[in-house]
Amino acid sequence: MYYSRKQAGTPIHDLWSLDTQNTKAGNGQKVAIQDHYSTSDGLVYSADRTIVAWIADNSVYSKNLATAQVQQHTQHLGSPYDLKFSSSGDLIYSDAGAVYLISMESGKVSQLLAWHYANEPQALEEPADYIAEEQIKLIQYVASERDKRKQRFEHNKAVKQSNPTVNQNVFYFDSSMELVEVSVSPDLSKAIVVNRQSGESRSDDDIMPNYIKENGRIKAESVRARVADAEPVEHQVWFLDLNTQEKHKLGYDALDGFDEDVLASVKAENAARKGEEYKSEKAPRAIGLMVDWYWDQSAIQWNAEGTNVAIMLEAWDNKDRWIATVDWQDKVLQQQHRLHDNAWINYKFNSFGWLNNSDSLFYLSEETGFANLFTKPLNGKANNLTPGSYEVDELTLTRDDNYIYFQANKKHPGIYEIYRVALSTGEIESLTDLNGQTYYALSPDEKSLLLHHSKLTQPPELYLQSAQPQAAVTRLTHTVSDEFLAYDWVAPQIVPVASDHVESPIYSRIYMPKRLNSEKQYPAVIFNHGAGYLQNSHLGWSGYFREFMFHSFLVQQGYIVMDMDYRASMGYGRDWRTAIYRQMGTPEIQDLQDGVDWLVENARVDREKVGTYGGSYGGFMTFMALFTQPDLFQAGAALRPVTDWAHYNTPYTSNILNIPDVDPIAFERSSPIYFAEGLNKPLLINAPMVDDNVFFVDVVRLVQRLIELKKEDFETAIYPVEPHGFREPTSWLDEYRRIYKLMETHVK
Length: 748
Prior knowledge:
The chain is an alpha+beta fold.
């Protein structure tokens, strides 16, 4: 087993190996640099699990698991990607406009498929105009030369077509297009190619000044476009027949709702605000391959034999997801599943594929309100294997189709354990009971689970367990320093905070002394996590480990700290996720109000001594709280904050607020800059200047707005060398010192 481990005090990560058969081997051994090629994150296995292959340093390798012999198949040629095995056991990979085949028997590398975005070569060009036409008619020499060119072209073409060593599968597409993805069937008889319109998605105005460069000059860095400038993106799906060298474009008209006006009510509301009337009409929607921000699989999935393919598609307006197969005879898509959401389709929980030994699909879907696992025979009825109010993810299908392993928060929203479901009976078995946050990898022989487990005050470590229900667990690694373990950290409690707006509680981390002084009222700080769609009130180690340490410090200084999984957070189902649709900053701030009430009623907090802070989305929430509910907090710190959603990126923002041209109401309702006049409490704004996620200009525009509104109680700290996530320890220290000073001065 291999794992990555960060060196203390450096940015370097070492590769370590550990013999899982020797559980007393400590943390294992550091792999020598010259041996790093011997493994990779993207391992692929042959169907019988006897050979594993990977790409390392732009070369393709394989290893015979019985003999441990490693073979190098290519040597630093191009940039190979998308490595997989064919149904015959050979290797396929893509590189620079072509797909290649590696024979595992002979070692020969041959080109299987190539494509070009250009006009297909022709024997003769058509005359460009009248003069050219007449030239050919009147001048015998010109006509003769054209005829000779045609003869040579057709002869060379015939020679090439009769040569068995030459790749015949060369396809041409419109020169205005570019590749999105290509996928060849395991039996090598078919391919799916997905194209889109080529061209820059950003303009020359999308730049960011970088003031601190090694050469002492200012550099204008290119950055992403804004959602305000977004244009619909359409993908073309093509079926290539590699036996006949024919290509067929697959239309979307077989998909339910492909031409539905799903934003009709939104458009009508915005039109009414302008005194206009909107008339809804059907029109084809922009549709393309599904993009899931969490998966490492393709949106194109072939069955084991290569006789069927499933393609996951999404609408650019974010309201629909489809799984479609291909009717090879009629050259059309066939819908197998549609997931519609009036808010937006989640960019998580989209894993899908085929069972190994039947023409049945498995997939995740939020259609019940939570991410459940379904199976569905081709053109048959779907079956929910995991009904219930919990989230299922991290799927692993066994080779014999007996089980699908998965991770779920079945027993508590903040506890993630490993389960498996029997496909024949639907029985769900609990495999782990570690009560924290647990991820897993099923061993190649499917007999063991490698577990990546953490708890509230314990960073992740590796464990080993037999792949059986409630089997004994063996801890493999102890990688945390003695210095960290010796420190008396404040262990947060996970508590359900009652909501005045929804039935479900708001799960929250509470940091407080082991015993509260019954004669004292405490000041408090509420931390707002970033991303929006992120879970932090789980029972595992938080990705906000710096904040964990800062919160321990605040408790030692006499504060109570709360960290809420407000509405919009991950782990609590579809309705919790989409509560912010078209109203970012409203339900979250309502939840913060409930948090303050809980602190007052349960933790002896003084209502007049509560502050708040957060970064990114949490910084946005700090703004919205201070601007729209100015009596809720006594001070706030907004770090790397969004101030105007029209300036943020398209993939994230258009999900929640649509786009400004369609739904300006949602953007104005959700952007802090429109509510800045509400500020009457001290505000700290911390802004990194080399932030290519939330641009520095967001803060610049808001500060100018506050100046024009004659606001006094705000200050701005800039960080000239920092991106969205700080890198320099001195910057982190400066930021936390400023937050602490703000709370000491205006809250405590």
